[in-house]
Amino acid sequence: MATESRDVTQATETDRELTMSRAMVEAIAWEMRENDEVFYMGEDVAEYGGIFSSTTGLLDEFGPDRIMDVPISETAFLGAAVGAAQAGMRPIAELMFVDFFGVAMDQIYNNMAKNTYMSGGSFSVPMVLTTAVGGTYNDAGQHSQTLYGTFAHLPGMKVVVPSTAYDAKGLMHSAIRDDDPVVYMFHKRLMGLGWMPSPSGPKTPVPEEDYTIPFGEADIKRHGNDVTVVTLGLHVHRALDAASQLEDDGIDAEVIDLRTLVPLDTETILDSVRKTGKLLVVDEDYQSFGVTGEIIARAAEGALDDLSEVKRLAIPDVPIPYARPLENEVNPSTDKIAAAIRELHE
Amino acid sequence: MVSVNELRTMYEQMVTARYYEERLQEEYLVGKQPAFDISAGPIPGELHLAAGHESSGAGVCIHLRDDDTVTAPHRPHHIAIAKGVDLKKMTAEIFGRKTGLSKGKGGHMHLFDPDVNFACSGIIAQGCPPAVGAAMAAKKRHTDSVAVAFLGDGAINQGGFFESLNLASVQNLPVVFVIEDNDWAISMPKHRVTDVTDGSQRADGFTMPGERVDSDDAVAVYEAAGRAIARARDGNGPTLLEVQVHRRMGHFMGDAEAYRPESDISHSKRRDSIERLAEDLRAHGVEDDEIDEIRERAHERVDEAIAWAKEQPEPDPSEAYEDVFTNPPAQATTDGGYSDSGSTSDAAADGGEQ
Predict the structure, then answer these.
(1) Cα–Cα distance, B271 to A222 (Å, whole number)
(2) Transketolase-like pyrimidine-binding domain: from which residue to which, for each copy (chain A) (predicted)?
(3) How far apart are CA A133 and CA A234, in angstroms?
(4) pLDDT for B306-347, tens place per residue?
(5) Cα–Cα distance for residue pair B84/B60, rounded to 1 Å
């Protein structure tokens, strides 16, 4: 980490609840007040406040030079963020939907992710790439993906996926202070938008002061002894719902929220698997060659003898379809997660 | 008006760059003859030499300071030399040595020197957006630094180039785009792939000035670049510049140029910007002895850099895991492939050219 991270347990107890978007914005505003080198650029981030409310209100406080609308030219402005970061600034650049990475991937994976390594460490790229991910609202194949695995697969980027307002704020502080490129992937359904209602889980108490959540520390969102469920983003909440449904049947699931994919907290997964012996991985990305396979491989490498059974639920290698019954079919539901836990338990 | 001292400086940079490419050509072919094996010899991999491009690097970079940013493409040596990149460390990098600019992790297409704000991208036109970003940083910080993105004529059909021109123009950023027109996009002659003969016409769509220097006359490049860079430094926005250069060697070493008419090759070699600049020096009263002296000094510097580089140790295989991140995650060694590089190598700092 660029700066000393505080133990999250030291953060002040508070009853103040925020949506995930308000928590993110609070962290961005705090960092911008502290450091003149931080600025935010993206499409519709100033007057509009971000299509998914990632920058609501920031323009009023910081003005158009620091909350900067840019042309719909992802190659140019993501690459410009790389250049500004290499010059020592701390840009935050927003890729409106992660699905749009295709028009700008060279800047992301050939420059942003590699210039530190290819310069032998003489250059740093301290930027944050914020991007909206996920489906569940019938936006079809070009606007509903998470692409977690795509970004985590390519070396040189730290990859962050918050699931609650508390985590979103602490991870954003860490992301902006980090000296490396951080891809901060926020799930649209968790942001607390009036026009895309969130489940109840992501709105949490959030301390008013700044705090960091270190990268590479998964969070056990529910402790249990029977089955380990490893997941991230929206599906943390679906897994928690599934786990509480199963309580009455005497099934005690443990739900691990990865919070960061790079670095990945393998130890927390292994500790849990050693305890339960049963592993379910739930992911909203495509199934093959992705997060589910990686988590299962690490569990197998580290705790094969303790592992009696594994399962995975993910998008079954089809593009995300539009119509409700079709999208609902392929995006792992609470019921499907509950059924998978039950099968593992039997 | 160019001063005689500036002529001397440009001449020295140009003869340095030319001799550098000639010497690298020799070194590159070691172990690759008679059967060409791209991975054999002291310099493995692709090598894109810039002989014939020297007037561009020298004529532009003479206007730049260390705090100005330059991004260069896959054919970067002459630009790096003119920008003042450490020649010894750069050469060690090209030879894949531990004390190279990037500790052997970049190679000749990926030269990075933070001391003079020099970076590369080996992907066509993709150095343009980071140059725009450096210009954006200069503007936000209210400095008078500028950025220059060099690219080839084959790059002006890339989306990243167009996006960068628009962003630079709409935000009035202090950046200059320099197209090095060597008439060839790898094996494609310009007229078959590019709809304009004068690449600076691309500026017309972006309300920025475009200017073409129709020869590799370093003084003409100096003058056009001087106008463009002053314009950027004064807060008057970006400029698109195209300068005619000549590709005296293949696209990359090993390119037999079977596609290229013999007349075009001999034409490129006949026009020599370096000889032209020597004439300019003589016209300004510089004696032949001094011109010879400059050339010899340049050759000596190149020979020294190459000799030094070849004596440098190769990186230890374990170093492959270092420098993925500036702040490596604490637990990374147990699962990811990367690790903390520990203390910075002092050898690189001490051994480089001062």
Answers:
(1) 75
(2) 18-193
(3) 10
(4) 999 999 999 999 999 999 999 999 754 445 556 654 434 443
(5) 12
CATH of A8-205, one of 3.40.50.970, 1.10.3720.10, 3.30.565.40, 3.40.50.300: 3.40.50.970
Separation CA A193–CA A20 (nearest Å): 9
Q: Would you state the structure tokens that stand for residue A187, as one six-digit string?
A: 């799930």
The correct answer on CATH 3.40.50.970 for the domain covering B4-315 is yes
- A143 a catalytic residue: yes
Q: Using omega within 30 degrees of 0 as the cis cutoff, is the peptide bond preceding A263 cis?
A: yes
At position B306, the amino acid (one-letter code) is I
Chain B touched by A216 (CB under 8 Å):
yes
Backbone angles phi, psi at B136, to 5 degrees: -60, -45
Residue A38, φ and ψ in degrees, nearest 5: -85, 130
Select from B69, B136, B141 the residue whose CB has the most chain A CBs within 10 Å, as the one to mutate to test that interface.
B136
Q: Where are the domains of chain A?
A: 8-205, 219-345
* Cα–Cα nearest to B110, from B28, B47, B165, B40: B47
To test the contact with chain B by mutation, choose from A1, A73, A100, A178 the residue with the greatest count of B C-beta atoms within 10 A, namely A73
Runs of H (alpha helix) within chain B: 4-29, 54-61, 77-83, 87-94, 128-140, 159-170, 190-193, 218-233, 262-270, 273-283, 288-311, 332-335, 346-351
Q: Tell me the CATH number for domain A219-345.
A: 3.40.50.920
pLDDT in tens, A229-262: 999 999 999 999 999 999 999 999 999 999 999 9
Q: Please indicate whether, in this complex, the C-beta atoms of A83 and B105 are within 8 angstroms of each other.
A: no
CA distance B150 to B79: 8
Question: What are A340's two structure tokens?
Answer: 């998978």
Q: What is the pLDDT of residue A216?
A: 97
> Least CB-CB distance to B335: which of A86, A215, A264?
A264
Give pLDDT, residue A5.
41
The domain segmentation of chain B, as residue ranges, is 4-315
End-to-end CA distance of chain B, in Å? 30
Which DSSP letter does residue A212 get?
A: -
Instruction: Give A205's DSSP letter.
Output: E
Give the mean model confidence (pLDDT) for residues B270-297. 94
Query: Does the ipTM exceed 0.85?
Result: yes
